[in-house]
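input
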Amino acid sequence: MVKISTVIALGFFVALIPFTGLPNDNEFPLKNILFVLCGLVIAFLSWLIRMELEKVVKHLHSDIKTDTYSESIPKAEENKVE
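output
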């Protein structure tokens, strides 16, 4: 949940960068640096989230059953020979 919240917060930050008044001159393009860094962090976090979701989907679709139900057979029926 922390990763998803971080991606959302970075998305809002990227949307607000143009309105911050930060300089974008040729000597030190601070806005461009912030855009690139935020983009890389968002891409990395998205990749981590995707890996976690793949693990969950594999676990949900696996054939391993962990049900605790088992059918009880009375003792008299176990000894019957058909």
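quick obs: Residues 6 and 42 are 8 Å apart (CA to CA).
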